[in-house]
Design a protein that fits this description.
The chain is α/β, with parallel strands linked by helices. Helix content is about 35%, strand content about 30%. The strands form 2 sheets. An 8-stranded mixed beta sheet has the order 1-2-12-11-5-10-9-8, sandwiched between helices. The protein has a 4-stranded antiparallel beta sheet with strand order 4-3-6-7, with helices on one face. This is ABC-type phosphate transport system, ATPase component. Pfam families: ABC_tran.
Length: about 270
């Protein structure tokens, strides 16, 4: 069902029996006096990939970073961010525990200056997991989920910094998966990658959506159309349209969306 909210936006809403992994209600983001995000209300269905698209400065990354409190100390975020019945935008939330459930992969790979194995085992040690066999099991399973195991399994002691950019990005995904998250947030994770590495990353994400909810910011409309189930188009800090990816790219409701996806924008 599509709910048309005046003439400025068109937002898809879901039936009551559709499981929602994360929902924002009237989220506002302020950088000082700059009102960067306006009235952001969206539902993210579980076990799907949602793409956030829009021009530079439209608010995509600002909104994404709000979803696991990465804007704390940088911006003021008002409104509700609902996860499993809890408003994670409240002061009572344990942010570090919450981020284990809502992980984040950044635009550029940020592996630790440690071995491949230690990139994953170090956070596990910090969580209090000491059993070596359990740690090795998690290292292997998370690398397999990130489609990296076959490429590195014979040299886990190798420095993560020696990996290619695409491998480093998949290692960062594996590191997030080792925390047993529910949701993965990704801020343009392929922007620094070559086409082959981008293809491998997209195949990895397609496989992961059977077990995780993925929300991805991408500047590539081709990537959004290939990869995502749902797409939200943002413009000047507002969510203009949210629908199935097919509808957004082939039958958008809003003229502004149509102009953007067809290239007649700006």
């Amino acid at each position: 069902m599509v709910e048309k909210v005046n003439k400025e936006k068109s937002i898809l809403t879901f039936p009551a029996d559709r499981e929602i992994a994360l929902e924002t209600k009237n989220v506002q983001v302020y950088y000082g006096d700059n009102h960067a995000m306006h009235d952001a209300s969206l539902q993210f269905p579980r076990y799907s990939i949602t793409a956030l698209i829009g021009a530079s400065g439209s608010g995509k990354s600002t909104y994404l970073r709000s979803l696991n409190r990465m804007n704390d100390g940088i911006a003021r975020v008002d409104g509700e961010i609902m996860y499993r019945g809890l408003n994670i935008n409240s002061n009572e939330v344990d942010i570090y525990q919450m981020r284990r459930r809502i992980g984040m992969v950044f635009q550029r790979p940020n592996p630790f200056a440690k071995s491949i194995h230690n990139n994953i085992s170090f956070p596990l040690h910090e969580m209090g997991i000491k059993d070596k066999s359990k740690i090795n099991e998690i290292v292997e399973s998370s690398l397999k989920q990130a489609a990296l195991w076959d490429e590195v399994k014979d040299d886990l002691g190798r420095s993560a910094l020696s990996l290619s950019g695409g491998q480093q990005q998949r290692l960062c995904i594996a590191r997030s998966l080792a925390m047993n998250p529910d949701i993965l947030l990704m801020d343009e994770p392929a922007s620094a990658l070559d086409p082959i590495s981008t293809y491998k990353l997209e195949m990895t994400l397609s496989d992961l959506k059977d077990q995780y909810t993925i929300i991805i910011v991408t500047h590539s409309m081709e990537q959004a159309s290939r990869l995502s189930d749902y797409t939200a188009f943002l413009h000047m800090g507002k969510i203009v349209e949210f629908d199935t990816t097919k509808n957004v790219f082939t039958n958008p409701t809003m003229k502004l969306t149509e102009d953007y996806v067809s290239g007649n924008f700006g």
